[in-house]
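Problem statement: downstream parser choked on a complex file, so we are re-checking the raw output for the F7E run. The parser issue turned out to be on our end (a line-ending mismatch), but while we're here, posting the original submission so the record is complete.
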Amino acid sequence: MKKKALIFGVTGQDGSLLARLLIKKNYVVHGIKRRSSSFNTSRIDDIYQKYGDKSFFLHYGDVTDSLNIYSLVEKILPDEIYNLAAQSHVKVSFETPEYTANADALGPLRILEAIKNLKKRKKIKFYQASTSEMFGNSSPPQTENTKLEPESPYGTAKVFGYWITRNYRNAYNLFASNGILFNHEGIYRGETFVSKKITSAVAKIYLKKQKHITLGNLNAKRDWGDAQDYVDAMYLMMQQKKPDDFVISTGQSYTVKKFVELAFKAINIKIRWQGKGLSEIGCDAQNPKRIYVKVSSKYFRPNEVNFLKGSSSKAKKLLGWKPKKKFHVMVEEMVKYDIKQLKL
Ligand code: NAP
Ligand code: F7E
């Protein structure tokens, strides 16, 4: 019998990569997509064309809808559930705090309840997409034991998701694990996150379709990994004998500025920084009159997480996991992919 997985958030960056991985591992994959007035399946259309209604099935659903979740879980009876569904944008969470809490905090609770109250007897494993945003400004390196002090409605909602996963594990003996993943990027990253915003702008600048990019806080430091590597770690967590919580990170941290510099390096432009605060600019080191990067307060957040750098020694020891792709390789690949896409 093939194993069955159910992925909430299958249309997102991680969901689409995880669906590919599980199909490769001979799973039957069921994915939940939201109803939308325009197409929202671009990341998984190729999987559906190849495996649709054979080993890949899509269902309409929403993690804010308990009835929908209960009936999907009862009907599909998966071996593993991956909850990747979330309003995942930190800045947007300040503007939609109630919706963010509904989806990101109560969403995992609803799925856990469905597993706990299952009519048929089946031990379903549960993965919760927890995040380094839960640490807020706790000092690096952040580990599984670092204090959770979220700085946003998103981080706060995710802390509830994290704890309710632990509560249900302890209270009801469920296999329920948290992956505490640090930022991870790649060619499928959404365009409003800073990595993809930068690489797609650099690609457009290269092809003379855009003149400059406007960003917010250039000095925030993030521990940026590769999405494919991180999805591998999710799978490994679900193959363990016992449920547990794991930090997944690279242990290296870079500023947004460094990301910008590497992205421009991929098109042979060296960036020189001038000025401070809102007047800071990034210009061509060869031709300082040519400005490529500007700053606007529009992209600042009411609270900022300044410095994330994780330690994944537990994942290394117990899962045998370590990151494979180097930061500069990932940035270059994203720029090259975006140029290729624009040329199509
Ligand atoms: P993403 O690209 O934004 O994908 C989020 C997914 O959730 C999309 O499929 C989205 O559907 C779906 N979704 C949103 N609200 C929903 C709702 N109410 N009901 C059902 N589905 C809903 O995020 P990602 O980067 O793949 O991240 C996956 C998960 O890991 C998220 O929970 C995120 O918070 C968490 N996380 C991400 C990172 C990271 O760096 N990427 C790090 C740590 C944790 P649509 O396509 O219709 O919008
Ligand atoms: O911002 C700064 C911004 O939106 C990174 C999500 O996947 O990872 C992600 O959250 C940094 C922040 O990611 C712009 O202020 C500057 O310091 O790419 P981001 P994030 O907020 O770290 C965590 C782990 C998750 O769990 C989340 O789901 O970049 N920044 N200028 C900017 N950020 C954006 N988006 N846009 C800018 O123009």
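For whoever reads this later: The first helix runs from residue 13 to 24.
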